[in-house]
Amino acid sequence: MRRVVITGMGSISALGFDAPTCWQAMREGRVGIGPIANIPTELLNVKIAAEVRGYDPAAHFDPKRLVLLDRVSQFALIAAREAIAQAGLEFRASGIGERTACIIGTGIGGENTHDETAKRFYGDKKTNVHPLTIVRLMANAPACHVTMEFGLTGPSFAVVSACASANHAMAQAFDMVRSGRVDYAVTGGSEACITVTCVKAWEAVRVTADDTCRPFCKQRRGMVLGEGAGIFVLEDYDHARARGATILAEFAGAGMSADAADIVLPSMDGAAKALSGALADARMNADEVDYINAHGTGTPANDPTETAAIRKVFGAHADALAVSSTKSMHGHALGAAGAIELVAAIGALRDGVIPPTANFIDPDPACDLDYVPNTARETPVRAALSNSFAFGGLNAVLALRRAE
Amino acid sequence: MDNTQDAIFAIIAKEAHIPVEKISLESTLKDLEIDSLDVVQIIFELEDRFGITLPDRDPTVDTDSVRGLVAAVERLVAEKSASAPSTS
User: What is the CA radius of gyration of chain B?
Assistant: First the structure.
């Protein structure tokens, strides 16, 4: 089987409009969570989120194009442009687009379009609906727009698994490149879920924090919604070497599982199965791993369960691992979470810097790993895992190795 | 007030799929084997039925016991009617 490498990376989130800015913010422990500014808040009890701030769609898209694009597709395109530019691939001009997959995850899809349409129809009592509503809100729209802009004519679809969508999408793309079904893949996740109705819906589950996101710490009060995208270019190692591409990291394996238990409560066994599956798929020894980018939502249920799963899989090596949740900085971007978090894992591998778990106050006895509280740590990272555990018990863990 | 209590018991019974006879003021939701997802649904139905908002993580609102839920709903309903403009 082929080896798969990552040669392009793009991101937009509360931490910045590109991947280097995002990674720099993570290194500095800068928190992108703040008062909600992009939507009306008078009906909200939870008034904080990790929004993409100061974003002007017109700076990225002409008006004729923009009318087709929900915010979720805009984010995917912006991140894809950055990733593909960095990879230095001309998919359309060189004819390699037909050997390229485009698989992009989203938890919700065109949520802003849904919200605006419902308001117009039920709130404003208008009797007609915008004719582009369907093409804006469909969950596959981000993938479609990326294929159209770059001429990617290989297999393309969306992957939907709530908070694990991005990791499941990237695992699919990885499998396709590894097996030789395609030579290249453009993959990741996008989400733009901060609307009045979506924030209200999260409030109603009663798992969102009203102060900030403090994963693994005793004072944690829940998750904080985020938004954005992360998109990556995957290709097989030999191709990348032959064309002299810069290899950001090796995509070594993926582990996936379903808890088959509860629609909201996580299962330790399900998470452990995905973690051990990723190690096995990557032919990676547990003691090779130096860093885990945790799912780390900051909810009462996730953090101790994830801790126990890591302990179960890593045994004594768990105490030598650095585990951090960058959701403390960029919030929980649902279907984009794993993609934004892959920026952290790649940064850790390349620079030998572990991004911290920000907003950490006191340890929780039920969460007893090294969470790199508040300050980044310089240490070589040979291999890293990135965890995503979704509502519904759908788990996906990615395994990466440092580029040789 | 008994009507309020009856309505609350009925909502708990319906959302948790348990016979209403099992519910008493002395029960905790844990005793009744009501899981966290049922709890948030019960809260939603109570808010809807009584036109109130049950605050999240308010130390004066006990959502772990039936007595706590009844007390919270009764208090919030009383506060609402005290602050409502007179219609006469």
Answer: 13
Inform me whether the C-beta atom of residue B48 falls under 8 Å from chain A C-beta atoms: no
Catalytic entry in A102, A163, A217, A367: A163
A305, HSE (Cβ side, Cα atoms, 13 Å)? 24
- B28: three-class secondary structure by DSSP: strand
Chain A positions in Cβ-Cβ contact with residue B56 (cut-off 8 Å): 45, 203, 206, 210
All residues of chain A having their beta carbon less than 8 Å from the beta carbon of residue B43 are 206
Say how many residues make up chain B: 88
Q: What is the pLDDT of residues A291-348, one digit of tens each?
A: 999 999 999 999 999 999 999 999 999 999 999 999 999 999 999 999 999 999 999 9
How far is CA B17 from each of CA B23, B33, B34, rounded to the nearest angstrom? 11, 10, 9
Provide the shortest C-alpha distance from residue A38 to chain B (in Å): 24
* Cβ of residue B23 closer than 8 Å to a chain A Cβ: no
**Long-range CB contact pairs, A15-22, < 8 A, 24+:** A15/A329, A15/A330, A15/A340, A17/A52, A17/A55, A17/A78, A18/A82, A19/A79, A19/A82, A19/A83, A19/A230, A19/A343, A22/A330, A22/A340, A22/A343
How many Å apart are CA B15 and CA B9, to the nearest integer? 10
Q: Is B40 on the interface with A (CB under 8 A)?
A: yes
Both tokens assigned to A372: 């790199």
Known catalytic residue at A163: yes
- The question of whether A295 is a catalytic residue gets the answer yes
Residue A262 near residue A393 (C-beta atoms within 8 A)? yes
Rama region for A258: left / alpha / beta (φ>0; ψ in -120 to 50; rest) = beta
- Active site annotation includes A317: no
* Residues A173, A236: Cα–Cα separation, whole Å: 11
User: For the whole model, what pTM was predicted?
Assistant: 0.93
- What one-character DSSP code corresponds to residue B25? T
Bridge partners (DSSP) listed for residue A291: A322, A384
Q: Is A211 part of the contact surface with chain B (CB cutoff 8 Å)?
A: no
Q: Which of A220, A222, A226 is nearest to A199 (CA)?
A: A226
pLDDT single digits (tens) A222-258? 999 999 999 999 999 999 999 999 999 999 999 999 9
